[in-house]
Task: inverse folding
């Protein structure tokens, strides 16, 4: 078993095509697809078994504006195990957590409420319906784009204690990622 970390700018375009193909197979054609340009600074994690990718995901830079302060966090996204039930997803998540702990950064992602047990077992913290506390805000128009679904937050608290603070208030954290069509990263 090998784990590789590759910055998006160093990832061949054919791997982006392969990732998108696997995501469509798993989630259908309405899933956010990934492209090299907005992910040039993202860190992609790959779990490989005999040089075959069996699980992948990424961390991307996300700036959250919360109560007038900007927080630089790592968005946890694109998590997918190509082969299920073999522990590859858990290995992937534990490697991401290790990276986040070492960097001191908060990691934040979202998932369906039916997936939180997996993330908890892998070592992430979870909070049901946390997506309602984060809203996309277009900086040019001020348009707010809210997630219509009820999704759990998955996170690893960093030195900034952002999630702890958000959970103590009713305030919203705003972010903008122009490359995604719908909330989540």
Result:
């Amino acid at each position: 078993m090998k784990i590789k970390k590759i910055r998006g700018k160093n990832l061949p375009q054919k791997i982006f095509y392969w990732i998108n193909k696997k995501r469509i197979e798993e989630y259908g054609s309405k899933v956010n697809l990934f492209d090299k340009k907005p992910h040039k600074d993202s860190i992609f994690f790959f779990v490989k078994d005999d040089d075959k990718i069996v699980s992948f995901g990424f961390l991307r830079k996300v700036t959250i504006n919360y109560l007038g302060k900007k927080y630089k966090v790592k968005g946890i996204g694109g998590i997918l195990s190509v082969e299920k039930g073999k522990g590859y997803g858990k290995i992937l998540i534990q490697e991401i957590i290790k990276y986040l702990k070492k960097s001191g950064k908060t990691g934040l992602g979202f998932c369906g409420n039916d997936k939180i047990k997996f993330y908890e077992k892998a070592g992430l913290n979870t909070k049901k319906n946390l997506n309602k506390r984060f809203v996309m805000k277009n900086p040019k128009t001020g348009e707010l784009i809210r997630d219509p679904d009820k999704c759990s937050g998955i996170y690893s608290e960093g030195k900034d204690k952002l999630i702890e603070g958000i959970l103590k208030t009713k305030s919203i954290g705003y972010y903008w990622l122009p490359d995604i069509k719908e909330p989540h990263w």
User: Anything to note?
Assistant: DSSP finds four helices and ten strands in the chain. The first helix runs from residue 13 to 27.
